[in-house]
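Hello Y.,

Per our agreement to keep a running log of every chain we model this quarter, I'm adding this entry. I've kept the format consistent with earlier entries: sequence first, then predicted structure.
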Amino acid sequence: MGAAEQTDIVTIGVGGMRLKCLQLGAIPRQTCQEYYTNPPEGEESIQDRVGRVQDEYIQMLATMHEAAPSAQVITVGYPAVLPEEGSTCNLPVLTELGSIKHTDVDWLRENALQPLNSTIQRAT
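Predicted structure for the entry above:
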């Protein structure tokens, strides 16, 4: 019996697109919302990205079950890294949200974080 077959518990978490929003926040008049709502050619919109994550997440769970069929799988949502109000962030404090614009904080929470967590819950 291999290590995967002996695995009792697996915890799974996923990441997001905060790095791109940090990069865009440093550019005047450029927002994460604009970038992911009307992406440049070759980039995914936020809706496409969440849809892709759902498909990949379902496949990942199936692969995990095949590799460790006896394991209890615990999935966790994306961590609460965004405040309830974007205006409460101090820009550009790196210990907070760095260069992410206030409007992007609210947009990310509503259009990326919440849909991502809903996707994780549905897929699980």
